[in-house]
Write a structure and sequence with these properties.
Elements lengths: L1 H47 L6 H11 E7 L4 E3 L15 H6 L4 E3 L9 E3 L1 E9 L2 E12 L4 E9 L5 E8 L13 H5 L16 E3 L10 E3 L5 H15 L5 H10 L2
Parallel strand pairs: 9-10
Antiparallel strand pairs: 1-2, 1-5, 3-4, 5-6, 6-7, 7-8
Helix pairs in contact: 1-2
The structure holds flavin mononucleotide (FMN).
Flavin mononucleotide (FMN) binds next to helix 5.
């Protein structure tokens, strides 16, 4: 009897120690994973404006230079995100989770960007300069050929010129559609005009060579017409009247 009790107590102690170790490791790993996700996100946001920063520098830069806000796409204004769930917070925004939630999403006309729903709220990142807001970064999402593409598009202070683009999520074929995430293709966007003087979206990804006199055409990727078309549609949609267009117009007229 005594032996059995002793064996039982050994088994219990070992399992207690093991469960403690496993739980502690899981908690530590989860924290680390969250930190890595956060880091990855802010590095992509910074990369959209041409800043390539390592971990701690990225965090410092992001905190010092970026104001992340949540805008209501219907009201064209920013709102207080604090009562909203984590997937709607600008720093932890999850487009797909927000699109799935019936309270926080709405349907999109079929065929526009290949998605059925989109969030009612979207994050916008303001880059602070020495004299106020320097650049504005928006999240853009749409379907490519095989996958959902997500990227950050940065506009210069004039809210017309493209400062940069960064695709941080895509599952297109490497060497074909996957080229949208290459530095070479992304660099083609810099300096292009997204809007005409009337505020209409003019930026477009074209098949074949661009008109050398055009300031708003991007050459599509050869052999990846469908991915290129997806990018064209998503950029035009998000900058247009159903996306950030009205919000950007308000910013332009407010002049800040
Ligand atoms: C294995 C394979 C992978 C492909 N991956 C892509 C892709 O990622 N993006 C894309 O637009 N087209 C891709 N395509 C090509 C499309 O099927 C289609 O032919 C192409 O988009 C037409 O573009 P083009 O007119 O520039 O040739 C792929 C084709 C094959 C056979």
């Amino acid at each position: 009897m005594y032996r059995m009790l002793k064996a039982l107590s050994v088994v219990l102690s070992v399992s207690l120690v093991c469960s403690f170790v496993v739980t502690t490791t899981a908690v530590i790993l989860e924290q680390r994973q969250q930190r890595n996700h956060y880091l990855e996100r802010i590095r992509h946001i910074l990369a959209a404006v041409g800043v390539d920063a390592e971990d701690q520098d990225a965090i410092t830069l992001y905190r010092e230079a970026i104001d992340a806000v949540l805008i209501d796409l219907r009201l064209d204004t920013d709102i207080d995100p604090s009562p909203l769930p984590e997937f709607l917070q600008p720093d932890t925004f999850d487009f797909l989770a927000a699109s799935r939630h019936p309270d926080y999403s709405e349907t999109i006309s079929p065929g526009l960007i290949g998605l059925k729903r989109r969030p009612r709220y979207m994050p916008v990142y303001f880059v602070r300069g020495e004299e106020g807001i320097d650049r504005v970064i928006v999240l853009i999402v749409g379907k490519g050929l095989w996958s959902t593409l997500q990227g950050y598009l940065a506009l210069e202070k004039d809210l017309v010129t493209i400062a940069g683009i960064r695709f941080f999520q895509q599952g297109e074929t490497p060497g074909l559609g996957g080229e949208i995430a290459s530095p070479r293709w992304q660099s083609l966007w810099q300096g292009k005009q997204a809007f005409d003087p009337d505020g209409q979206v003019v930026i477009e990804v074209v098949k074949g060579p661009v008109d050398p006199d055009s300031s708003h055409q991007i050459e599509g990727i050869s052999g990846a017409t469908l991915t290129s078309r997806g990018v064209n549609q998503m950029v035009r949609y998000w900058l247009g009247p159903d996306g950030y267009g009205p919000f950007l117009n308000r910013l332009r007229t407010r002049g800040d």
